């Protein structure tokens, strides 16, 4: 009886959280961002201010979801999260909230996201205002990520390009490796886990797990590309394999 | 630089397999004329650019952007290079 009640409370909390997120995104996109744009002196300054506002907004959102009992969040090595760039951060993507909760850990992040977010009324204001990078343009996406990192910024990229399949990892695209190879070879891997699993691909928001979701954002040691002068096609393949191996090991350890 | 003028379709295909092993670590045994670049060979748009650059440098041909759109399988590239060769010859 208490378990069923707890579940209904978390369904209500999840619904309230998403409503909070939707309204918050619209407020950011329609009110806060235009004001910031008006008082910023160039595009970079505007993006930095907006990303900082998004970071603080997502911290509030994280606190709200914790308060209503939907999630708990653990960050075992917070000192490894970059406070400033240049830095490439890569992460696996098991649930709908990964992006939000990762950005809540970093004061600045140029995030590589699906092009569809530019036409979604809830997210369009955020992705445009923050200057996020669409992930559908191949080499142009890589070049933009490289440009941002060379400008001293933090870029957050999900090598799978979309949410992971349930219980595992999807195919890793090589964009992250190309970005790393063009910017000194380093990438900071953050392993995201959610136990029990929830908000996975294809799972409706109201299908909440049997207990509160425990998120863990585990930043590892940077993965560094081997400096051996291979053609970039080969180098990107071996580096992508190294990324995948890292996440597989971490997820295996976590599950075990 | 390889001599494109004297190459037939089989030799162009063999040349491409050699380039793809060297550039992308794709085993020549995996590559067929009907191999799909994305589905079978796990190539992406950046690989396509690198392949085009390698072919341009080593065969001395010049690709236009339009040449590279719509290429799906290995045979498409062999055919494209053959057309370029005919253009050189003519």
What does this structure look like?
The complex is a heterodimer of chains A (256) and B (90). Chain A is α/β, with parallel strands linked by helices. Helices cover 47% and strands 15% of the residues of chain A. The two termini of chain A are 31 Å apart. With 90 residues, chain B is mainly alpha-helical. Chain B has a single domain, classed as Non-ribosomal Peptide Synthetase Peptidyl Carrier Protein, Chain A. Chain B has four helices and no strands. The model of chain B has no long low-confidence stretch (mean pLDDT 88). The interface between A and B is medium-sized, with 14 and 10 residues.
Layout of helices and strands:
The complex is a heterodimer of chains A (256) and B (90).
Chain A: H1 2-39, H2 43-67, E1 71-74, E2 87-91, H3 98-103, E3 110-113, H4 124-130, E4 133-134, H5 139-150, E5 154-157, H6 175-182, E6 186-195, E7 213-219, E8 223-224, H7 232-255
Parallel strand pairs in A: 1-7, 2-5, 2-6, 3-4, 3-5
Antiparallel strand pairs in A: 6-7, 6-8
Chain B: H1 9-24, H2 45-59, H3 65-68, H4 74-89
Looking at CATH, which topology of chain B would you report?
A: Non-ribosomal Peptide Synthetase Peptidyl Carrier Protein, Chain A
How many alpha or pi helices of chain A? Answer: 7
Q: What's the end-to-end separation of chain B, in Å?
A: 20 Å
Under the CATH scheme, the architecture of chain B is Orthogonal Bundle
What descriptors fit this protein?
heterodimer, A: about 260 residues, alpha/beta, Glycerol-3-phosphate (1)-acyltransferase, eight-stranded mixed β-sheet, 7 helices, globular, B: about 90 residues, mainly alpha, Non-ribosomal Peptide Synthetase Peptidyl Carrier Protein, Chain A, 4 helices, about 55% helix
């Amino acid at each position: 009886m208490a378990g069923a009640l707890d579940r209904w409370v978390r369904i209500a909390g999840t619904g309230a959280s998403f409503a909070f997120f939707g309204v918050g995104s619209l407020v950011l996109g329609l009110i806060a961002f235009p004001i910031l744009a008006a008082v910023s002196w160039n595009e970079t300054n505007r993006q930095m201010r907006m990303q900082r506002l998004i970071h603080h907004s997502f911290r509030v959102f994280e606190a709200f979801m914790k308060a209503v009992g939907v999630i708990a969040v653990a960050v075992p090595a917070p000192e490894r999260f970059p406070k400033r760039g240049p830095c490439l951060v890569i992460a696996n993507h098991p649930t709908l909230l990964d992006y939000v909760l990762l950005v809540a850990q970093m004061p600045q992040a140029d995030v590589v996201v699906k092009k569809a977010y530019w036409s979604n009324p809830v997210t369009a204001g955020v992705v445009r205002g923050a200057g996020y990078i669409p992930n559908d343009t191949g080499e142009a996406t890589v070049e933009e990520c490289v440009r941002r990192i060379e400008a001293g910024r933090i870029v957050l990229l999900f090598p799978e390009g979309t949410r992971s399949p349930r219980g595992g990892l999807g195919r890793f695209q090589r964009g992250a490796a190309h970005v790393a190879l063009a910017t000194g070879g380093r990438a900071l891997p953050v392993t995201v886990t959610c136990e029990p699993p929830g908000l996975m691909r294809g799972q409706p928001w109201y299908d909440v797990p049997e207990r509160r979701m425990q998120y863990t954002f585990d930043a590892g040691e940077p993965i560094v590309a081997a400096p051996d002068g291979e053609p970039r096609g080969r180098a990107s393949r071996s580096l992508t394999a190294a990324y995948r191996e890292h996440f597989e090991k971490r997820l295996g350890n976590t599950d075990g | 630089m390889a001599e494109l003028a004297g190459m037939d379709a089989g030799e162009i295909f063999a040349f491409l397999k050699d380039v793809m092993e060297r550039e992308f670590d794709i085993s020549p045994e995996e590559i067929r004329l009907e191999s799909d670049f994305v589905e079978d060979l796990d190539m992406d748009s950046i690989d396509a650019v690198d392949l085009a650059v390698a072919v341009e440098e080593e065969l001395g041909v010049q690709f236009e952007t339009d040449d590279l759109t719509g290429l799906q399988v290995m045979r498409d590239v062999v055919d494209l290079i053959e057309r370029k060769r005919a253009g050189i010859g003519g």
